Prior knowledge:
This protein is an alpha/beta fold. The chain folds into 2 domains: 3-242, P-loop containing nucleotide triphosphate hydrolases (Rossmann fold, 3-Layer(aba) Sandwich), CATH 3.40.50.300; 282-503, 3-Layer(aba) Sandwich (Rossmann fold). It is 25% helix and 25% strand. It contains 12 helices and 25 strands. α9 packs parallel to α10. The longest helix has 18 residues, at 124-141.
Amino acid sequence: MNSQLITVDIPGLDLALGGGIWAVRRLPEAHASATLLIRGPPGSGKTAFGTQLAVALGLALKGDVAYGCVELLPVELQAQYANLQTSGARAKVLIPPFQKEESAEGRGCRIFAGLLDLGASGQEQTRLGPAIHALLDEVSRAGGRPRVLVIDSLSEGYGLGGSAPRPLADALPKLAAELGLILVLLEETIDSRPSTWSFTSDVVLELASGEEDRSPALSAPFERRMTVTKNRFGPSDAGPHRFEFFGSGLRLFPRPTAYLASWAAPLLQMDALQEELVPQSWAVAGDDGQQNWPHIRECVIAVHGPEAHIVHQVSGRLGSETSEGKPYPGVTLFIDFLHQVNRHSEETYYEEGTWTISAGNPYLSGHRLLAMVRDSIDRHRRDGIVIEKVLVGDLRSLRSFWDPEGLRRAIAVITALMRQARIPVVLFETTLLRQLEQPESVRRAVSTASAFSRTRIMETSQPEPYAVDFADIVVELIAQRLSGPSTPLARLTNVRTGLQHAWDPFAEGEEENPR
């Protein structure tokens, strides 16, 4: 086999890199190799990102990491890694003199960090190769099994930056090919112009701070971003993607477009959620003879009206029953834009048949929201739990968020993914009061459905609710004080066909609408 797809255990990286990192066997007697270049200015997170990527690669390949330090001291790397990995550390950093230990196989991954001896100023380019060989030999003597080699960092101050000679930049990937290593190069940059190292690397990742998150009127939270500028052997989404370091490790938040890429479907496995245990009902009373309503598991439903508690109650009722009128045996996934938690606290919780994603952080990005939804979907898939529906709201609160447009684009992606999985989505939004106007003949009509269909909503200056943009079915709720025998509480409209249905969600004893 000439190539190998390495899937690393870094959340989100699989989507950004089209499934993982491709390594290629360049020489028949060696393992597959790859050269990864991580570039960025000081403070962009190169060392932390590169260390955790190297550990993930080492674990995937059942080997160790040889870490060649150019300007960073090994003890500084040890302290940084320990402080970032406050829980669930998957590796340990060893510093010279290395004590002989048994092989890493079956024991996790070890980082052997040593200072590369580059000689006097001006000798760095000629001494780099021998210094790397010396480090690898020292690691092997200590019982290490290096499969990943990191060089931290390539900078102009040592003559190893973007203007390094091409023969030197060609030599390191060739060394990795001969030894069957995954080479991770960290380059300190001043700007984003390609360097000599960019041309010889298989994968190039650019790190930077989130300039697009800043505003002269309000300071946004500092977020780092990653851009994939090169992926020689596989597909990728260029980004920018956002990333953050948590106590459990590095977490990448792919931009929303990555979830809709051609390679995303097998990674997300949304098709695996399509199995339906029992038929699901709309739970809409008052059959008016319309037989052409789509199946609820094929729909995105928008619910809006002027009374928030009514809007929420009605949204929660939709799809909550089986065709026999019994509670549907599933869990509602609720993306709650009104519930705020500490940013680094648990972002989901379970209560009374509802799994809630607390999305009330006003600085929440679409990148992070999609990652939270993916985590919840994966957890339910692993546990074999059926998702009754995805409930999203109140969308009115997005007006106070830092990036409402970015969140709406993320919601559009969520609806597309749920359609693929045949999970109904209910978007709800509290809107301003809309007035009803009825002719006298309509008010005297006997047929409720007939009267409702001839009721006219008076024009207002308010824009149409955002929830309607994504919907197949629109449920418009009327203020309770305006409802009556000839004006039920809700109007259901099939966006595709224009069919309408009058509905009082709090009526008792009415037959249910066709499925």
